[in-house]
Amino acid sequence: MDFEALVRRCYKQDVSPARIVTLKGDASSRRYHRLFMPDGLQPNRLIVMELPEDALRSDEAVGGDTPEELPFLNVARHFKEAGLRVPEIHLDAVAEGAVLLEDLGDELLVGVIRNKEEDTLRDWYAAAVDLMADMHERMWPIPDSCIASRRNFDYALLRWELDHYREWGLEARQDITLSPDRRARLDRAFDELAREIDRLPKGFVHRDYQSRNLMVLQKKPSPASLAIIDFQDAFIGPRIYDLAALLNDSYVALPFRLKEEIIARYANKRNLDFDTLRQEFHLVTVQRKLKDGGRFVFIDRVKHNPAFLAFVDASFERVKDALAALPGHEPLKEILAEAAPEHFATN
């Protein structure tokens, strides 16, 4: 990566970074670097998002054709036009394998709320869900020019993610192959789950709206204190999906009563029925967190990054809680308890 050439283009003068720090990686195939610039230059710091060779392909299955524009840039532009706080784009150098971004610091929501009292959690999650409700209102209907308008979290993609769990979170993790009978029963239960979720009311979906993808700009909890990142996989999907991702992420365990409060807050903000929304929430949580647990194993086995293995059990714990709160779906509950009793058996 030719950092000097990038900053010369960005600042339109002959300058060089004073210092370059490569940041700790995450689950994506992108790499990030922080550039410290000489005194007197503004901005004084930059983030370089180094792109993989196949930059237009998502790390997640998203459906649709390969885009002509980098999805991150496309969604960022539409977020900015909608008045949502995202990192500024200082230089589009996709042809050279990079994008230069505003440096928003290192403070993620997960770090601010870790090991905090319930009142602090409540304040920050209220801010996050208010920002989410605002995002959903401003981005729906999705403009035709936004790539998210051409991506649908439909039955096929829902079903693929459930198979992703079965392949990695169940069979690969336990080093087993399901018997034909159990595989058929699991497939039938997953078919029904995916069909039911596909029938839910739709809306704009960030796809990974959670505590590691909200940056804290100020220490006072408010929507204005948060910036949204990692939005490149946005699509049309269940209207409740982002709320399920936020309140059931694998990195922060929230009390059940607090989840209920935040669901009610979101329902009030969007003028939606609370009981209906809560039912949708538990249904989507089952699918989302099965996928997450499987994905974390996949990231370890295929991408050789074991950092997320610590959150596999937490993901499946969220599934178990959601199943307990979800009426019906007995075939799904039974086959999961049989295939993975350590995670889903009830006492």
Plain-language structure description:
- With 347 residues, the chain is α+β, with helices and mostly antiparallel strands.
- It folds into two domains: 17-102, Phosphorylase Kinase, domain 1, CATH 3.30.200; 115-344, Aminoglycoside 3'-phosphotransferase, Chain: A, domain 2.
- It contains twelve helices and nine strands.
- The chain has helices at 3-11, 71-81, 109-113, 118-138, 155-174, 180-198, 241-247, 256-270, 274-301, 312-325, 330-339, 341-344, and strands at 19-22, 31-36, 45-50, 89-93, 98-102, 202-205, 214-216, 226-228, 235-238.
- The strands form three sheets. It has a five-stranded antiparallel sheet, with helices on one face. A two-stranded antiparallel sheet has the order 6-9. The protein has a two-stranded antiparallel ribbon with strand order 7-8.
- The longest helix has 28 residues, at 274-301.
- The model has no long low-confidence stretch (mean pLDDT 96).
How is this fold's topology laid out?
Elements: H1 3-11, E1 19-22, E2 31-36, E3 45-50, H2 71-81, E4 89-93, E5 98-102, H3 109-113, H4 118-138, H5 155-174, H6 180-198, E6 202-205, E7 214-216, E8 226-228, E9 235-238, H7 241-247, H8 256-270, H9 274-301, H10 312-325, H11 330-339, H12 341-344
Antiparallel strand pairs: 1-2, 2-3, 3-5, 4-5, 6-9, 7-8
